[in-house]
Known about the structure:
Blueprint: H1 2-10, E1 28-33, E2 36-46, E3 49-57, E4 65-66, E5 84-93, E6 96-105, E7 108-117
Amino acid sequence: MRDEIQQALSxxxxxxxxxxxxxxxxxxxxxxHGDWYYMFYIGFRDVHHAQIGLARxxxxxxxxxxxxxxxxxxxxxxxxxxxxxYKPYAVYDNGQWRLWYNGRHDHVEQIGLATxxxxxxxxxxxxx
Length: 128
């Protein structure tokens, strides 16, 4: 994944994260949980519009597999995060995942919380 990020940052073309025209910046959070490393990261469609994706790896240094339902957090139409969702910070605590993130609508930026019950984040059991 690091090579893909470097390539996307340095070359025009499609952003590997979500098929956006160009990745303009990358920011992510890695977390170890059980046998996996999880990375919550940002994919930019352009400088003003961002979404949050999820990937996992066994060793945390390579062979990252993206979540099949990416982006996992997207801007909500006419909502507080209408333009962008970014700066993810995730923890697993007390039987649930908690993901804090910044959302922006016009020039107003706020912090939101998304939760997911249980450990399973929806990756295929067959995926490495």
